[in-house]
Amino acid sequence: MIRLEGVSKRYGEQVAVQETTLAFPEGELTVLIGPSGCGKTTTLKMINRLIQPSSGRIFIGEREVTAVDPQDLRRGIGYVIQSIGLFPHMTVEENIQVVPRLLGWPKARSAARAHELLELIGLEPGRYAKSYPKELSGGQAQRVGVARALAVDPPVLLMDEPFGAVDPLTRERLQDEFLRLQGELKKTIVMVTHDIDEAIKLGDRVCVMNVGAVEQLGTPEEVLANPKTRFVRQFVGSDRALKRLSRLRVRELMRPAAALELSASAKDAEAALARQRTVYVTRSGQLVGWLDRRAFAFDPVIERAYTEVSPNYAASEGDDVRQALSKMLSQGVAELPVVAASGELVGLLDLTGILAVTVQAAPDAAEAA
Ligand SMILES: Nc1ncnc2c1ncn2[C@@H]1O[C@H](COP(=O)(O)OP(=O)(O)OP(=O)(O)O)[C@@H](O)[C@H]1O
Ligand SMILES: [Mg+2]
């Protein structure tokens, strides 16, 4: 856990960070977000003492950072700097080995570690270890920056706009990779961004800053559902109800679906259709289509009367609700069956269920009226 207690940083008259008290929980990723100049980089650099606070105290675990030798301190903290910052005259593997070599690791050990990290970040060591930064794409260079920060397996990682310098598609891929990585590594991470979508996607917690002060710290859900200040409300945007949906998984919002096996009797079908107008049809649990009352009345044999659906008609339980909603709208339906990765029908998601969560997050409409 990292704690800031009443921390300020002043440059003459200019206040970069004012009286900030904050905690970043262990094993979690906290995103610092806010407009340019609000003090994000300053906050980050005070944690690893690249910047000395004007006042206040900072702790990592039980250690006060000012009591630790700065060199020792930084070895326990991986740092990914704004705009990548690879050393241009060093190869990829040399870049990754900077801290291990400073720590006096034997050559073989730091080389092995560099190769292991290249594999972890999806760059084949045989091909990239000896490359120079200028031979890499932006996305590859970003990955190497992350690998370098992870070299000595530090418990804490500070990342300043680590995915800032790449195109949106690459950025999304890097974010996904990074989420997967963090799922395994469980580092204590403070990451800076000024992209609210990135903050919502990656953060266990989001810390919204403005002119040197914290406006709100909370889970993405809390910040989106309940912006504490006018600034936060404006910053997260008027589509925050929709943004919230991108944090929710379909499985969290689905409810049980009425289903009928293809081999069921006409009597069972009648009974099911007496209760509701349509039911889903499965074959050994796998979604194959749906059956509606009218079609069945016309031809009371399930196999003939049911309507087949293509496999991608359904929502996947692991999709986010925003994706599912978009699928619903593009197919012009008010509900979707939900399937597991195996294709098994596991529930249904409907507009009513989605609206129930979005209205909680929409006091803006009332305010505007
Ligand atoms: N060395 C310095 N001397 C004077 N003022 C500084 C110095 N470093 C930063 N500042 C000021 O402190 C404030 C916070 O800067 P900081 O770099 O932390 O912002 P930031 O939130 O990281 O912005 P960005 O999103 O543009 O990277 C800014 O107003 C900046 O101009
Ligand atoms: Mg900055």
TrEMBL record:
Record-linked Gene3D superfamilies: CBS-domain, P-loop containing nucleotide triphosphate hydrolases
InterPro entries: AAA+_ATPase, ABC_transporter-like_ATP-bd, ABC_transporter-like_CS, CBS_dom, CBS_dom_sf, Gly-betaine_transp_ATP-bd, P-loop_NTPase
Protein family: Belongs to the ABC transporter superfamily.
Alphabetical keyword list: ATP-binding, CBS domain, Nucleotide-binding, Repeat, Transport
Coiled coil: none
Matches recorded under PANTHER family: OSMOPROTECTANT IMPORT ATP-BINDING PROTEIN OSMV
Pfam families: ABC_tran, CBS
Any Gene Ontology CC annotation: membrane
GO BP, sorted A to Z: glycine betaine transport
Name recorded for this polypeptide: Osmoprotectant ABC transporter ATP-binding subunit YehX
Domain ABC transporter, residue spans: 2-236
Gene Ontology MF term list: ATP binding; ATP hydrolysis activity
SMART domains with a match to the protein in the record: AAA, CBS
Domain CBS span(s) in chain numbering: 306-367
